[in-house]
Each structure stands twice: as C-alpha cells, then as structure tokens.
Amino acid sequence: MSEPLLTLDGVHTHIGHYHILQGVDFSVPRGGLTMLIGRNGAGKTTTMRTIMGLWRASRGAITLDGRDITGLATPDIAQANVAYVPEDMGIFSDLTVRENMILAARDGEPKDDRLRWIFRLFPALEKFWSLEAGALSGGQKQMLAIARAMIEPRKLLLVDEPTKGLAPAIVGALIEAFGELKKTDTTILLVEQNFHFARALGDDVVVMDDGRIVHRGLMADLAADEELQQNLLGLSLEMHQ
Amino acid sequence: MSPVPERSAGTGLSHPLVERLRAAAPILTVPVLMLLALPATGDPSAWVTLTLAGLAMGMMIFVMASGLTLVFGLMDVLNFGHGAFVSIGAFVGASVMLWLSGLLDPGGVTLHLAAILPAMIAAMVVTGALGVGFEKIIIRPVYGQHLKQILITMGGLIVAEQLIYVFWGPDEIPLPRPDALRGALVFGDVAVEKYRLFAVVLGLAIFLAMHLLLARTKIGLLIRAGVENGEMVEALGYRIKRLFVGVFVVGSALAGLGGVMWGLYQEVITAQMGMEIMVLVFIVVIIGGLGSVEGCFLGALLVGLMANYTGFLVPKLALGSNIFLMVLILMWRPQGLIPVAKR
C-alpha cells in the first residue's frame, strides 16, 4: 500500500481559551475520497482549517506528501497544491464568475479544456460567466466554489460541507461532479453531514467526536453497520443528514 | 440539475427599469445634487463656477481618501494617521517647488507645469517610502485591534506633525500657484478657474487609472477580492500581506499627492492641514462605503459640491452641511453609497 498523501499526527488546536482538537490522528490515502463525519461541534471544520493553516496547530504534526506543513502559512500550503472550499464557500460576491475563476487559476489563464470539463459538470457557470457571483443562487455559488478548486489539477482538495442547505437536485449534480473528479486521481478530504452524499462518494471514512478521532475505516463498512453508526454518532447515518 | 434563475431570489419581482434605477441611484446622486442647486443659486454662471469648484474640491479629497478606503477594506485597519501623509506630501512638494523656483519665474506654461510635476512626484515618493515604515512600525503590531489602531495611528499623526515643525519650522508656508495655473478662462458670463480645471482633470485621470487597475488587472482583482474576503485570497495561494503593504504605500503616496494639490488650492500649507482635512476624508470614506473606490469617488464629489453650494447659499451652515449629507446618505444606505460585500 502506498504512503498516504496527508497525515495528521497528534494534532491539537486551541482557539482562544478553547481546546478544540485534542490529539487528532488520521491519514488520507492517495487518490481516494475520505469522508470526515461527526456530530456538530466535533471539530471537523477546525480540522480542515488547521490543515489549511488558517488556525495554527498548537501541538502535533501535519504531513503532506512527506513534507511537514504544520507551521506553514496558508498561501504556502495552498501553493503546495492544496485547494480548499470552506463551509461558507468563500465566493467573492463582487467579482464575476469569470473573475473568481481567474483568481483560482494561479498558473495563469484557465486552460480551455479544463474549463470545458467544468462547464460540462456545471453548465450554470458558463451561462452566468460574466455575472457577479453575488447574484448566483446558493447552489450555483457552491458549484462555483467547487469549480474554483478544480480549475487546475491539485494534489489535495479539502471541502467543508458542500451540500449544506442545498436542494436535492443540486446535491445530485455535486455527486456527479465529485464522481468525475475522483476519476482524475485527485485526493479529496470532505466534511459531510449528508449520508446519501457520503455513501455515494466516500472510499474511506473518519469519524470525529469531541475533538478526537473515534473511528477510521472503509465507508462501505460503516454504511453497512447500523450498530456501529449508533455507537459512533448516536443515530443511524440514515438519520444523520 | 434544477433550472437556474437569471438573478438571485428577491430581484425577480421588480420591473427591470426599477432595478436599473435602483442600481444607478448612487451615481445619480451627483447630478441630482447639481440640478437641485441650479434653481437655488438663481444664476447659471455662479452655478457653473460653484459646480466646478465643488468638483475640483471633490477630486482632491478623492485623491487623499482613495488609499484610506482601500486600506480599511483590505486589512480592516482604521488609519487615523493618514493625514500625516497629506501634510508631509504638501511640505515635500513645496520644498521641491521652492528649490525649482527658477522655473516658476515668468515663462511658458510648460516650464511651470514642469516644476509642479517633480514636486508631485517627490511628494509621492517620500510619502510612499514613509508609508512602508509606518505600516511596519505602527500598523503591523495592531492588526485586528481597532481601538489600539485608533490610538497608535493618532499618535503617529502627532509625531509626524512635530517632525514637520522640526524640519520646516512652526510657521505656515505660502505656496503660490505658478502663473500658468492662476486666473480663469472666461466663456461668456462663466469664469472657470484654471487650477480647478487642472485639479478636475488630474483627479479624473487618477480615478480612471485606479478603476482600470482594479477592474482589468490581476492585482486589481486580488485587491477587490481581498477587500471582501482576505482569508480566502490567502487560501487560494496569494500573500495578502504583501498586497496590503503595496496598497498602503500607494495610498500614502496618493495622500502625499493630494497634499500638494490641496496646498496649491489653498496657497498655504501648515503642519495641521492633514489633520484638518481628515474630517472630510472620513466623511467621504464612510458615505462612499468602506473599501469602495467608486463609492469614495462619488462621496468625494458630493462632499465637494455640498461644501461649495452651502458655502454660497447658506454660509452659516457650510461647516455642518457635510455632516448633514452623511446623515442623509447613511439613513438611505446604511452601508454607504456603494457597499462592498464583506464576509
């Protein structure tokens, strides 16, 4: 088995006086989609932000492709070929869809073939290419946020709750898009509360509770074991959405 | 995939014309104010003179305020020391002009303007360079701490004023305009003061240059994105702190340029001129919408026009007229004329 792309080893994060992450340990295998799930307040978003350097780990180590990125600044982590889609999508509302995409393409103008691929997955973005992103609907904004992360091939994609507040039809479109992205061997770490979404896409699963990892395994195994779901999450995944 | 709406929810029920008018309303405030003043002044030639004076004043305030609004928008920094760059710019510009006084003796228009140009460039270079130090020593330790920002930047302003006394002495310095920019061009009954025309053209050129930079270049995109959500700009791999230093330097240099323009307008410079003009600069930044260059431009024009119209019509109200204008605009649009979407 190849070395994992991302490894968190005993990571602690404090925010003010609060000790949020209390020794988080897990690995993200290369080329797969790992789901990070857990109750509200378990520390999932803090984990993503700590990986991205937006909050500093007070202890422990984060390794990306064999390189220690624990103390790096956020732009350095992004330049290590990591894309991040935050929970609030991070769309620049005053910029057009096109301008949002141009900023995400660090290596120059977006490549035509890559754009065509994205437009095939998210046709609305082509339709509203010159429209201010603030005028898009919630689902379209999420598409733009994900498209922005996909505009250039990245080693690792961190996505925080992409289906939050979206209509089922949009969730279906996102499942299709992530399915396509998986075919490109991009490694994805995805925080999700929507069970259908998690089951449809997840290869591996990591469950968090109270700032710690309480389970690691295959998504299919967790999806098939209702008792384990009850033990880990306090309810079956069918209810957990 | 579900059908996608043309616009976001909440805009679909309005008539397109109403929507367009609503979008254009901030821009229309300037011509509306001008039109309201026309019958009030009663004399078209006086109205033209006042309007040009208001536009010229507005352009100068815009040059001074544009950097401040971007600095606030980009890094959430309240820089009360911005006026220091206005004063220092004026003094540096005056020194260069006095040094080049030979060129200002009676001669051709080209020679006169050739003396102003190095004065403006020197003012911008010096205030830009001081901006680097100001950001590093005074601003950087207090990022994210508004109260400390106000206190320490006010302190910086006071120190800068005292340094002006040290280098240039305590007296005000006369700064006469070159002959080429004195007097007026007369069109029938209308007299158009040459310096005001110069200020309008220069201010407009700076606004257009800033607009093009912000709208057409990647650096401009980064600045606009950074004003809205700096954290996300960093997550995309860009170093926003470097961008901020660049904007701070440009903003300081523009304040220095504004200081030279304002000094030539008043024909006298003092160490306190930066602090005095800051009241108008803050009004402009607030009514324009914090972080918005376009809003700052409209706000500056409104403030300049309002000050001149009320100064002519109701001189006793001139001092408070811009506060009244700010109250009116904030009651109508609490986030300012052109609010910037903030995360």
Concise structural overview:
The complex is a heterodimer of chains A (241) and B (343). Chain A contains ten helices and ten strands.
Provide a descriptive summary of the structure in words.
The complex is a heterodimer of chains A (241) and B (343). Chain A is an alpha/beta fold. Chain A has ten helices and ten strands. In chain A, the strands form two sheets. Chain A has a six-stranded mixed β-sheet with strand order 6-7-8-3-9-10, sandwiched between helices. A four-stranded antiparallel β-sheet of chain A has the order 2-1-4-5. In chain A, α7 links the parallel β7 (156-160) and β8 (187-191). In chain A, α6 (138-150) runs parallel beside α7 (168-182). The relative contact order of chain B is 0.19. The A-B interface holds A 52, 54, 73-75, 78-79, 84, 86, 88, 90, 92-95, 99, 102-104, 106, 123-124, 127-128, 134-137, 139-140, 148, 167, 169-170, 172-173 and B 1-2, 4-5, 7-9, 11, 218, 221-222, 224-225, 227-229, 231-240, 340-341, 343. Chain B: Belongs to the binding-protein-dependent transport system permease family. LivHM subfamily.
Shape of chain A: globular
Multimerization status: heterodimer
CATH superfamily of the largest domain in chain A: P-loop containing nucleotide triphosphate hydrolases
Shape of chain B: globular
- Name the chain pair with the biggest interface and residue counts per chain: A-B, 36 and 29 residues
Structural class of chain B: mainly alpha
Low-confidence stretches of chain B: 1-12
Which sequence of SSEs, written as H and E, runs from N to C of chain A?
EEEHEEHEHHHHEHEHEEHH
Architecture of chain B in CATH?
A: Orthogonal Bundle
Q: Helical element count of chain A?
A: 10
Mean pLDDT of chain A, to the nearest integer, reads 91
The arrangement of helices and strands of chain B along the chain is: HHHHHHEEEHHHEHHH
- CATH T-level topology of chain B: ABC transporter involved in vitamin B12 uptake, BtuC
N-to-C terminal Cα separation of chain B, in Å?
Answer: 28 Å
β-strand amount of chain B:
under 5%
Helical content band of chain A = 25-40%
User: Largest sheet of chain A, if any?
Assistant: 6 strands, mixed
Radius of gyration of chain A: 17 Å
Give the strand order of the largest sheet of chain A, numbering strands 1, 2, ... along the chain: 6-7-8-3-9-10
